[in-house]
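Human: I would love a firmer grasp of how sequence relates to backbone shape in proteins. Take your time, and here it is.
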Amino acid sequence: MDKNTVGIRRTNEGDLRMTAPYLPTFPRAARSLGADFDKPSKEWVFPISTTHLCAEPDVLALMVTFYGTTGIDDPELVDVRVALGLYGSQRRGFFALGREIANRCKKGSFRLGYGVIHQGGDLPEAVRSDDLIGENSAMLVVTDVPRCLAEREIRMYGDSMMIDDGVVSATDLNISWPEIPWGPLPRGADNLGRLRMRLLARLAEVQQAIKVGEGERMKTNDLEAP
């Protein structure tokens, strides 16, 4: 099963059982509706009856708030670019867009969440005990995010995220790269935020190209060595 799957089913007793990726802020909200987490099945159990305040519309609304879907609807999905470097000081993992984006394992090694692609830039290095994400310049792509959730969290997180429209090159943006640092900047926070994200994406491309070039140069040197 996809680790990012969100689903809901009704039991013979009339309760609702929900599956979803872990989010640190979700348990308190679920328990406020009377839910309990069933460890063997890894499901949240919502009691739906005349003796409980929880009603099915409340559960579905909660799912849309945290995950952008009820698991039984068919939301439009988009990919979202995330500048992870802006979250290097995040402690105990970075969770957004209804899933784990990045985290540290117990021994300090770094990992990306399921469905998160490293597009370019440098990922955080492994550490022994620090639980921070760590300094990095990585540009990530979070795949298959419900558009309603993506748009809502982009408004919340600001210019560190943007829906991936495939526009990252100078040609697509009608921008001359040498002019960017010296020419007039666009006006308005939204325009500046978009420019920032595109510059970070371009920087990630440059760093990736440098790594590829270094690898090719090393191969050439090995071939030419006596």
